[in-house]
Amino acid sequence: MSGPGGPIGTFDARDARDARDARDARDARDARGEAQYGGSPGYIGVGISPHTVPENPAAPAVEDYWWAGLQWPQTSPEVLDGTGDPKRLHKIYKSYNTAEFKNWSPGNDAIAFLSEFAALSSNAQDKPDWIDIVLPDPARTTNNQTGVTDFGAGQPKWDLDDELTELVGLIEYRAGVMSEALQQRDTLIGYFQGIVPFTYLSHPYTFKLCHNALVVAQFLAYHFKKKFNRPRPSQLHPALMPPIDVPQHASYPSAHATEAWLIAYCLDEVMRDGNGANDKIMETVTAGQPVRNALHDMASRIARNREVLGVHFPSDSEAGKRLASSAFPIVKKCPSVLALGDNKLLDKARAEWAGTKSVAP
User: Fold this and answer.
1) I need a surface site. Which of 1, 177, 217, 267 has the fewest CB within 10 A?
2) Confidence class of residue 104 from pLDDT cuts 50, 70 and 90?
3) Which domain holds residue 320?
4) Do residues 235 and 338 both lie within one domain?
């Protein structure tokens, strides 16, 4: 097999791997906040610069000048320390004191917030609130042998055989969603920013709230994944053949669905115009028509794309939505988020949307 530049061999594969590794390293650095949000670059080189005054200014020609090396902290060849060496001048700089560290990146701040969420016990119980979240046992076998995931009365029951049949039918849509679905492996907030323009600079508290939602969703999703240990669809049906590496953790619930829906619920909570009972800026309520909410539509789309790739069952997506719905009230109870007094995170995020008005369709 050959390409425009000749045969494709092992070096091409290595180059592709190196490019992917470089991207992963960059993404990890961005997640830590080292290269985003107005921060400094990951590496600042400090060497020895030439002093502005030459050592022999009386020399007749420029080529005879010699500039002493100027280090940091600063030194000066004119100020000696008694031994003939330049005296370091760092002691002349004035320092300033701050009451607390103020440069938390949203990603790192969210990781710290997770401990607050995980420990919250709002009802004077001996256990945290999130322990009471319940998901139904997912279907694991086919041929009508405990092959149904039941979310309760009045809710659809998910038959495993039917789910697998549906996923095979979705294969034909992969070409259309591939680019989008691949992007959504690494960024979810960005897709919500696409329909609701906000950035860390324009809406820092809204942005922080979204990062909090991400880490909480990941924490809860992995807890239940480990508890139920459901196989991936492709383990049960070879025809699915996912076009990406199957994630190396269990299928139920979908972490992407949990993350996307929890972000949507958080944005819904702060994006309000105060215009009556239906004041959610992104939600349209019309008599006799289904309620439409662009944030919910995006969350559903992100989850559905994972099904098209063949890495999640539809019931995984439903479980992620249910998990996000159960987690959101707990997020709102956390002391640093609580919208009661002290201008907490929800209040600050809501204030960022003040003056934004929804319009009738």
Assistant:
1) 1
2) confident
3) 104-351
4) yes
Same domain (yes/no): 166, 128: yes
Where does residue 143 fall: left (phi above 0), alpha (psi -120 to 50 degrees), or beta otherwise?
Answer: left
Which amino acid appears at position 226 of this protein?
A: K
Number of domains in the chain: 2
Query: Domain of 167: which CATH number?
Result: 1.20.144.10
Mention every residue, 6+ apart, whose C-beta is less than 8 A from residue 93.
Answer: 73
Residue 251 · residue 139 · CB < 8 Å: no
Question: Is residue 22 a part of any domain in this protein?
Answer: no
* Domain end position, chosen among 91, 119, 141: 91
Q: Is residue 114 part of a domain?
A: yes
8 CB neighbour count, 10 Å cutoff? 11
Q: How confident is the model at residue 87, as a pLDDT? A: 62
Q: Is residue 39 classed as helix, strand or coil in its secondary structure?
A: coil
Q: Last residue of some domain: 66, 91, 116?
A: 91
Mean pLDDT along residues 110-118 = 94
Contacts of 280 (CB under 8 A, 6+ apart): 268, 271, 272, 293, 358
Is 155 found in the same domain as 66?
Answer: no
Name the strand (E) or helix (H) holding 119.
helix 106-119
Find out whether 5 and 15 touch, Cβ atoms under 8 Å: no
Token pair for residue 111?
A: 């990781």
CB 282 within 8 A of CB 271: yes
User: So what's the pLDDT on residue 33?
Assistant: 43
Q: Say whether the peptide bond before residue 73 is cis (omega within 30 degrees of 0).
A: yes
Sequential DSSP letters for 153-217: TTS-EEEHHHHHHHHHHHGGGHHHHHHHHHHTTT-SHHHHHHHS---TTT-HHHHHHHHHHHHHH
